[in-house]
């Protein structure tokens, strides 16, 4: 008759992506070295894994939320380390990035406990036990609506319930395409969020959109019967920041109630004439660097921050609260220097009281929702040349994971404050 | 375009996708009007197309917040500090077909409950009301990674549930009661806690040449054997969990069948009163013989508990539980109107104490609790439509129980059942077993 059965549990077994979980093991022998392992097969069929080395206590238990990992892809007391420290398994192709494109299904992870402290060979031996956890970007009841009107392409996520809800225009960066997961998660927190497609990787640079496209998208959000038209904000990451700042500063049609800008810059505004932009970029081509692994570093291309006001968004014109989120190890864009320049410009203009800047030490460029893997470098197709490179985004994994977790909470608090709690502008004007 | 000045209330429930036995850790209302009377309402549409609802009355604090996990519910379909009250107090909406029972057939999909917040204290008229906020939560009988396999092997019909991982696992043979049909949700939920389970289809009578016959004991022996020989099952760590007829069969088989030697038994709402060494058909015959003992309550609902009373002293008329070799957990509702579970449990204790194996027996006896002791947070069913297995006659059967106590019993007995199964199936070598013939 065999000995006691090891019990492995994960709670909740079905959680939202930004919800912490607790992995626990029971009925091990006391002081037993074990490895907790997490395996995920992505939508593009690559395998990702993370693992931590633990030792059971006198009662034969391991608590992933309380105990320290002695080694593996993460160390220390890290209850979510099994998710954020995932990386492609050995032998995978280079430059992978983990992104969920279909938000109506969950990310599925297989969590296992192995005897001993292992660093490899997880698939060559059976674990002691396994459990499966689902991680969802979409809460039940959130409605997903495909948008294709007035030339605007996007996906609108409406929270469950009668509303009305505040709205969000959500924009990713230069990689283009339509990426929905962050909007889905925002809607799961009560914001009617539209993920906007504005850079088509398949289309040529001549068909790029002007500020009118974003104004129309903003209006479509405002006009939805379940959206509060005077409570629509904008969130942008990377190039999406340039869009957000340009709209906030110059548009008379799209007046965001607040703005969140992640890993971006006010250099260059998107209403800069295209040929002027190409001239500036070409001038800076020589400043592109490579690291020892041939990953491409673009951060110096806008350094030093230009003093020419025509090449920067005039942030002194912004009238809404602005939250900047940056990593100080951003190797893709000089976001920290840009943030300093933004602060100076706003100081001079007298609207600096609207600005909050969060700079995360040793975090990189891709500051994503929490508990998702840190991507230090990944494959990228340069939009105007169609060249394939591996871009260095930067960041150290643990610091970057902390930045993702902390910044997401701050973003939600910021959005709740300005889109839900604060009285409307109309009533403020009366004070 | 809409522009609003008043804050928009926000409802938050976590986990939003939970197992059916999982408690909510967060259930909060924010930004409601302060110090206001509020109603939280739950709505569930069953697979049969009936609507079930529940409601609770709360008063928000000065910040417009309510915490359903901590605050007192002052009215509605439940009261007191009851975070899960909106689930277990669900009942059919006014105008529904009478005598319904809520049971999930397709365990591959969740129950979806719409939870909404309303201004004021209300107990009716919800479809016509516009809520302040609402959301949806899912309740699953199946954890992710648990596989469902339809079984027809060795003449045995049922559904197997296999947890993820290499195994081997301890196993549970799961047997429901009368009314026929294969019901999987309890087996699926037990499997979600790390056991291989087999929900056994055994009630369906066979009809041939005008003769109706029920399965013989060899059918159960074959089912037990299927579990034992499954590559992912630890063959010496198999329990039987039964309710009603399933409990009674489990008792008889464990004592009289040499091929069925479970590591432990969990018996809900059953009895040892049956022809000793008999079959399922013999138990039905006993009931038919005593059918004159049928009683009716003031609503003409059928009370069948007397059909097995009084507990006989003749040993040939009951399972000799003094010969039981494994730990036994009896779960009894003291208001069971369908089977004399309480009297049977008392008699079994006497028999086992006399025999010297009384240390194997644990009894959980719950006041004001009826016959249908389901997994936690299932609505209490006090009476429902029932069709007998053999004759296919329709009745409204009184199961018994008062809702708050019955639902408390469902929750308490479930965790104790899982602890009992884990203790006797998972932890180390088998605990002291008296030598068996």
What features would you describe in this structure?
The complex is a heterodimer of chains A (431) and B (437). An 8-stranded mixed β-sheet of chain A has the order 10-11-13-12-14-15-18-19, with helices on both faces. Chain A is globular, with a radius of gyration of 23 Å. Chain A folds into 2 domains: 2-136, Immunoglobulin-like, CATH 2.60.40; 143-419, 3-Layer(aba) Sandwich (Rossmann fold). Chain A is built from 8 helices and 21 strands. Chain A has helices at residues 81-84, 181-187, 211-223, 239-250, 274-283, 335-349, 397-421, 425-429, and strands at residues 7-11, 14-16, 22-26, 33-41, 47-55, 62-63, 87-88, 107-115, 129-136, 143-149, 152-158, 165-171, 192-197, 227-237, 259-262, 289-290, 296-297, 322-327, 355-360, 377-381, 388-392. Chain B has an 8-stranded mixed β-sheet, with helices on both faces. Chain B is globular, with a radius of gyration of 23 Å. The model of chain B is unreliable at 430-437 (pLDDT under 50). At the A-B interface, strand 1, strand 2, strand 8, strand 9 and strand 14 of A face strand 1, strand 2, strand 8, strand 9 and strand 16 of B. Chain B: The active site is at residues 244, 336, 371. Chain B: Residues 218-425 form the BAAT/Acyl-CoA thioester hydrolase C-terminal domain. Chain B: Residues 28-153 form the Acyl-CoA thioester hydrolase/bile acid-CoA amino acid N-acetyltransferase domain. Chain B: One of its GO terms (molecular function) is fatty acyl-CoA hydrolase activity.
């Amino acid at each position: 008759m065999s000995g006691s059965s090891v019990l492995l549990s994960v709670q909740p077994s079905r959680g939202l992506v930004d919800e912490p979980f607790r992995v626990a093991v029971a009925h091990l022998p006391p002081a037993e070295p074990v490895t907790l392992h997490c395996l995920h097969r992505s939508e593009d069929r690559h395998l990702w894994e993370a693992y931590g080395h633990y030792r059971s206590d006198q009662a034969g238990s391991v608590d992933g939320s309380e105990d320290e990992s002695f080694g593996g892809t993460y160390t220390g007391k890290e209850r979510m380390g099994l998710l954020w420290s995932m990386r492609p398994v050995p032998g995978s192709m280079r430059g992978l990035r983990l992104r969920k494109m279909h938000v109506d299904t969950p990310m599925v992870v297989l969590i296992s406990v192995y005897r001993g402290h292992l660093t490899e060979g997880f698939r060559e031996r059976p674990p002691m036990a396994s459990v499966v956890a689902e991680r969802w970007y979409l809460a039940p009841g959130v409605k997903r609506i495909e948008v294709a009107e007035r030339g605007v392409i996007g996906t609108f996520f409406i929270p469950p319930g009668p509303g009305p809800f505040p709205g969000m225009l959500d924009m990713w960066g230069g990689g283009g395409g339509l990426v929905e997961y962050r909007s889905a998660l925002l809607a799961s927190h009560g914001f009617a969020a539209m993920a906007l497609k504005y850079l088509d990787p398949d289309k040529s640079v001549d068909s790029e959109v002007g500020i009118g496209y974003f104004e129309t998208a903003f209006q479509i959000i405002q006009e939805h019967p379940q959206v509060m038209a005077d409570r629509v904000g904008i969130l942008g990451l990377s190039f999406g920041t340039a869009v957000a700042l340009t709209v906030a500063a110059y548009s008379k049609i799209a007046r965001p109630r607040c703005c969140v800008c992640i890993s971006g810059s006010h250099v260059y505004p998107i209403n800069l004439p295209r040929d002027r932009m190409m001239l500036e970029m070409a001038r800076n081509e020589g400043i592109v660097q490579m690291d020892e692994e041939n990953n491409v570093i673009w951060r110096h291309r806008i350094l030093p921050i230009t003093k020419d006001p025509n090449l920067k968004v005039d942030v002194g014109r912004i009238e809404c609260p602005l939250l900047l989120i940056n990593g100080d190890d951003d190797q893709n864009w000089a976001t920290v220097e840009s943030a300093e320049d933004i602060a100076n410009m706003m100081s001079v203009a007298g609207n600096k009281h609207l600005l909050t800047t969060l700079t995360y030490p040793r975090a990189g460029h891709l500051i994503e929702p929490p508990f998702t893997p840190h991507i230090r470098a990944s494959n990228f197709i340069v939009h105007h040349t169609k060249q394939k490179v591996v871009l260095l985004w930067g960041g150290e994994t643990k610091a970057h994971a902390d930045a993702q977790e902390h910044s997401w909470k701050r973003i939600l608090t910021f959005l709740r404050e300005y889109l839900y709690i604060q009285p409307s502008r109309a009533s403020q004007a009366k004070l | 375009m809409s522009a609003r000045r008043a804050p928009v209330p926000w409802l938050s429930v976590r986990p939003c996708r939970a197992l059916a036995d999982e408690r909510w850790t967060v259930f909060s209302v924010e930004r409601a009007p302060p110090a206001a009377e509020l109603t939280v309402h739950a709505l569930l549409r069953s697979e049969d197309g009936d609507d079930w609802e529940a409601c609770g009355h709360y008063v928000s604090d000065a910040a417009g917040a309510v915490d359903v996990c901590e605050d007192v519910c002052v009215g509605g379909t439940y009261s007191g500090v009851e975070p899960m009250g909106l689930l277990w107090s669900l009942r059919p909406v006014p105008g529904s077909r009478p005598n319904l029972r809520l049971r999930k057939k397709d365990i591959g999909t969740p129950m979806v409950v719409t939870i909404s917040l309303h201004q004021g204290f209300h107990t009716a008229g919800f479809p016509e009301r516009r809520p302040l906020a609402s959301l949806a939560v899912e309740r699953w009988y199946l954890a992710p990674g648990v596989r469902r396999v339809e079984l027809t092997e060795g003449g045995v019909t049922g559904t197997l549930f296999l947890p993820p991982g290499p195994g081997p696992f301890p196993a549970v043979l799961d047997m429901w009661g009368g009314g026929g049909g294969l019901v999987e949700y309890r087996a699926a939920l037990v499997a979600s806690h790390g056991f291989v389970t087999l929900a056994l289809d055994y009630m369906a009578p066979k009809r041939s040449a005008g003769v109706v016959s029920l399965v013989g004991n060899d059918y159960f022996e074959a089912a037990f054997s299927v579990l034992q020989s499954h590559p992912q099952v630890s063959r010496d760590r198999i329990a039987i969990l039964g309710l009603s007829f399933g409990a009674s069969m489990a008792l008889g088989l464990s004592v009289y069948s040499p091929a069925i030697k479970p590591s432990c038994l969990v018996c809900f709402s059953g009895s040892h009163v049956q022809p000793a060494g008999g079959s399922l058909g013999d138990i039905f015959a006993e009931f038919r013989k005593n059918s004159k003992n049928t009683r009716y309550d003031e609503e003409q609902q059928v009370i069948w508990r007397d059909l097995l009373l009084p507990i006989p002293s003749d040993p040939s008329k009951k399972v000799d539980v003094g010969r039981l070799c494994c730990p036994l957990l009896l779960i009894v509702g003291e208001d069971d109107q369908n089977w004399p579970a309480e009297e049977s449990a008392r008699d079994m204790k006497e028999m086992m104490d006399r025999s010297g194996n009384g240390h194997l027996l644990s009894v959980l006896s719950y006041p004001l609790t009826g016959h249908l002791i389901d997994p936690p947070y299932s609505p209490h069913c006090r009476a429902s439509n029932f069709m007998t297995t053999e004759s296919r006659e329709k009745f409204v059967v009184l199961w018994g129980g008062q809702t708050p106590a019955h639902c408390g019993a469902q929750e308490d007995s479930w965790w104790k059942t899982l602890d009992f199964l884990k203790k006797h199936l998972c932890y180390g070598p088998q605990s002291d077993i008296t030598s068996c013939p």
